[in-house]
Amino acid sequence: MIQIEGTVAIIGSGFAGLAAALAIKQSHYDVRIFDQKNVFEEQNTGVILWPNGYSALEKLGLGQEIQSIGNKITSIEVLNEHEEEISLVENLPVPIYSVNRKDLLKIFLSRFDRHNFHLSKNFSSFKNHYSGSVTLKLINEKDEDYSFIIGADGINSHVREKAFEDGKPQYSGFMTWRGISTFKSNKLRPGRLYEIIGLSKKATLCPLPDGEIYWVITGLTSIKYIHQNSSRKKRLINQFKDWPLDLANIIKETEEELVIKSVAYERPAISRWSERNVLLFGDAAHPINGYLQQGACIAFEDAATLKELLLEKQEKKVGEIFSAFESKRSKRLAEMTKLASQYFTVCNYDQLGFIKYRHRQLKRLFPKLVKDSFEY
C-alpha cells in the first residue's frame, strides 16, 4: 500500500492547476483543488500541444489518451498575407497534437475523485509555519493546514499578489480571437499547421479531429478597443476577407457566440516563484508572450518537473524541493520568454521598409522556435 505523504492545496483549476494536481497526486500526496468558479467548463476552442507539451503530458501518463483525441501535425508552414511562403518545416521528428480543450479537460477530470474538488471557494491568504506546514485561508471558510500550496490561478494570481506584492498585470498591446470552424477547405493540407503573418496581425490555422479547424487571430490593438462590444465575427471577416487559405470563410463558419476574445496581459519576471511552502505555477509564476501559444505546454512542463523532484525528494524539505524546481525551470523559461519576445518583435516589423527584413528574420527564427519546442 502506497503511503500518502500529506495533503496539498491547489489554487486554480485551469490546465496549470489540474496538471499540478495530477503530478502531485502521482507523487503520493492527496490533493484539494480550489477555485472561485462554480462549475467546470472549458471554452469550445483548441489547444496546440507542441512537442514539449505532449512530452510533459506523456510523463504524466496521458500520452495514449492525447493520441486518441488529438490530430497529429507533422509540418508547419509560415506565409505572408499574400500567400508567399516564408518558412516551411516538414517531417517533424516529434509530432504536434491539436486537441479540443473540452476533450482535454475530460481527460484531466477523469483522474480525480469528487472529494478532490472544492468550487465556489475564494482564496484570501496563507500563513507559513516553522513546523513545515502552511495554513490556507479562504473567504468565509475555516482555515486549514496543508503540506504545501500551489498557486496556479493564472496571470491575475491572487496567490502571487499575497506572496510578492509585485503589482498588477499590464495590457501587452495585443488581443486574440479564436474559435473552431466547420468550414471544409481544400486549401489546407492534412496534418499541417499554418501561420499567416500580416501587418500588425497574425493568424494560426490548425486542423482538429473530425475535420474541424482551430483558428487564432492575434493583432496589435489600442487599449481603447478592449471593451468594444460590436460583432466580433463580422469585424474579423471584413478585416481578413483578402487573406489566403479561406481564412474569412473559416471565420464565417464559426458560431458567433463561440468566437472567443481574449485580452493579452503581461507582468514582469520575478526572481523566485516560491515563498517557503507556497509555489507559483504556470502563468501565475512566469506568463509567456501569447504569440508562441505555449502557455499550457509550459505549465505541463512545470508539472512533469515537479513530479520528478517530488518522487526523488529523499530527505529534502518542501522548500528545498521548490528551490530545485526554480533552478531547473528558470533557464528554460528565460530561453522561451526571449524567443517569444523575439517572435513578437519580428512579426510586428510593419513599416513597409522592414517587410523584407521581417521575412528574412522569420525564415531564420521560426525553425529555431520549432526546434526549441522539442527540448523538454
Q: What are the secondary-structure elements, in order, as H or E? A: EHEEHHEEEEHEEEEEHEEEEHHEEEHHH
Task: Describe the main β-sheet briefly.
Answer: 7 strands, mixed
Oligomer: single chain
pLDDT < 50 runs, ≥5 residues: none
Q: What is the molecular shape?
A: globular
Q: Which strand order spans the largest sheet, edge to edge or round the barrel?
A: 6-5-14-15-16-13-17
Percentage of residues in strands: 25-35%
Gap between N and C termini: 32 Å
Task: Provide a concise account of the structure shown.
This protein is α/β, with parallel strands linked by helices and 376 residues long. It has 10 helices and 19 strands.
Walk me through the structure.
The protein is an alpha/beta fold. The chain has 10 helices and 19 strands. The protein has helices at 15-25, 51-59, 63-69, 101-109, 158-164, 232-239, 247-252, 295-311, 318-347, 355-372; strands spanning 7-11, 30-34, 46-49, 71-73, 75-80, 85-89, 96-100, 117-118, 123-128, 134-138, 144-146, 148-151, 170-181, 192-197, 201-207, 213-220, 260-266, 274-275, 278-280. It has a 7-stranded mixed beta sheet. A 6-stranded mixed beta sheet has the order 8-2-1-12-19-18, with helices on both faces. Strands 3-7-4 form a 3-stranded antiparallel beta sheet. Strand 14 (192-197) and strand 15 (201-207) form a beta hairpin.
